[in-house]
From TrEMBL, chain A:
InterPro entries: Cholesterol_7-desaturase, Rieske_2Fe-2S, Rieske_2Fe-2S_sf, VanA_C_cat. Keywords: 2Fe-2S, Iron, Iron-sulfur, Metal-binding, Methyltransferase, Monooxygenase, Oxidoreductase, Transferase. The keyword Oxidoreductase applies. Signal peptide: none annotated. This is Vanillate O-demethylase monooxygenase subunit. It comes from Prauserella shujinwangii. One of its GO terms (biological process) is methylation. Residues 12-113 form the Rieske domain.
From TrEMBL, chain B:
The lineage of its organism: Bacteria, Bacillati, Actinomycetota, Actinomycetes, Pseudonocardiales. This is Uncharacterized protein. It comes from Prauserella shujinwangii.
Length: 358, 58
């Protein structure tokens, strides 16, 4: 075991879909921190440390009483800010009886949680995936547990060329030789964009059926990664030669927005959130079922492969050799940003005195 | 090159184009300087070192 951090603190992470957080207590570990989520009677999402201060019993295994959690072991009762408001058998509540609470923001169908220094939690820093909560789109989504470190999923998603081998038959494979691929890296905003723009491609039968496009298409598949957590795959299909307008509007194309939220659970496991939003065939259940089924299949194929890879890597000593080739250009940039963010998060933690627990 | 479509528009964007039909990568610094390579690691090293070598006023 090394002591160097492997994930970036002082960042926002997707902890859950909004629909998962309700009047039942939800326990979920994020960056190694056990957290309990619930919704107050007035509808606000709450996130508290999932360990009772008394004897460490998980609050997620306890019960809600109005907006308070009553510990399932001896009854310590916490309000939504984490302050203990009742202890059993005595009238005095110890001054230090409180559990940490986490900043949460609900946006784009997700519950985002800030892991790090409370004072630095700025909701404006949360990257957007607006399609997921836009009535002009229909979305299917899910989450798969991954028994592998999140960096393996980042590597996986940053390079789409693995689809030929790992997902043979599931994702249409473009003729890469004729497809300009450009990797763009914005140093200041810490965004990575990998665009594959096919000017003239065959229309996969699924898209022909669901969009009504006849003939050949212009097909774009653009990765936009906002490390550490949010990964977008913009898929654009239009009749050959049809391009977006200069103002960014794009009324004559069809869009599929694939969204992943990559949230470390522990050093060796990850929450793999995935969603697919489309702006066509909005009410077509068959199209929804097809997109849900095919994306879930692809995700599970990746999960299987990455679980294997995790076991191999854990069995090796540090400093193993890899070899990078052209397809890794974007992935290398992602690793560099993640490293930088991890270091930044560690500096933040080091700059402040750490409370010592007795 | 005609096929380059910029998608990010900041002032500090590096671009790497996979040169069509070849195994080569063309890196473009945000200052406009270019460097070609067939190794993405070497290309990134070059690009990230480049601002240090920017001539004054460039
Ligand atoms: S462990 Fe929670 S009240 Fe005792
Ligand atoms: Fe994959
Ligand atoms: Zn330069």
């Amino acid at each position: 075991m090394t002591t160097t951090a492997t994930f970036a603190r002082n960042q926002w992470y997707v902890a859950a879909y909004s629909r998962e957080v309700g009047r039942e207590l939800l326990g979920r570990t994020i960056l190694g921190e056990p957290i309990v989520f619930y919704r107050t009677e007035s509808g606000a999402a709450v996130a508290l440390a999932d360990r009772c201060v008394h004897r460490r019993y998980p609050l997620s295994e306890s019960r809600l009483d109005g907006d308070t959690i009553v510990c399932g072991y001896h009854g310590f009762t916490y309000d939504r800010s984490g302050s203990c408001v009742f202890v059993p058998g005595q009238s005095r509540v110890p001054r230090t009886a409180r559990v940490p609470s986490y900043p949460v923001v609900e946006q784009d169908s997700f519950v985002w949680v800030w892991i790090g220094d409370r004072d630095e939690a700025d909701p404006a820093l949360i990257p957007r995936a607006p399609w997921l909560a836009d009535p002009a789109y229909t979305t299917v989504s899910g989450m798969e547990p991954l028994a592998a470190r999140y960096s393996l999923l980042v590597d996986n998603l940053m390079d789409l060329s693995h689809e030929t081998y790992l997902h043979g038959g599931y994702i249409g494979t473009p003729e890469v030789a004729n497809t300009p691929i450009t990797t763009e890296v914005d140093e200041e905003n810490e965004v990575i964009y990998v665009s594959r723009h096919m000017a003239d491609a065959e229309c996969p039968s699924f898209y022909a059926r669901s969009t009504g496009i006849e003939g050949r298409i212009t097909r774009w598949q653009d990765i936009e990664y906002h490390p550490p957590c949010l990964y977008l795959l913009h898929s654009r299909i239009a009749p050959v030669g049809v391009l977006p307008n200069d103002d960014g509007t794009d009324p004559d194309a069809f869009h599929v927005e694939v969204v992943y939220a990559i949230t470390p659970e522990t050093e060796h496991s990850t929450h793999d959130f995935w969603a697919v939003a489309r702006d066509f065939a909005l009410d077509d259940e068959e199209v929804s079922a097809f997109l849900a089924e095919s994306n879930r299949t692809v995700v599970l194929q990746d999960v299987t492969a990455l679980n294997i890879l995790e076991r191999v890597i854990e069995g090796e000593r540090d400093g193993y050799q890899e070899l990078s080739i052209n397809i890794d250009t974007g992935g290398l940039a992602a690793r560099r940003f993640l490293k930088r963010m991890i270091e930044r998060g560690e500096r933040g933690a080091a700059a402040r005195p750490v409370a010592v627990r007795s | 090159m005609t096929d380059r479509v910029p998608m990010l528009r900041g002032d500090s964007v590096y671009r790497i184009h996979w040169v069509l039909g070849t195994d080569r990568l063309l890196g473009v610094c945000h200052c406009g300087a270019e460097h070609e390579s067939d190794d993405p690691v070497e290309l990134w090293d070059w690009l990230l070192a480049h601002p240090e070598r920017h001539p004054a006023g460039a």
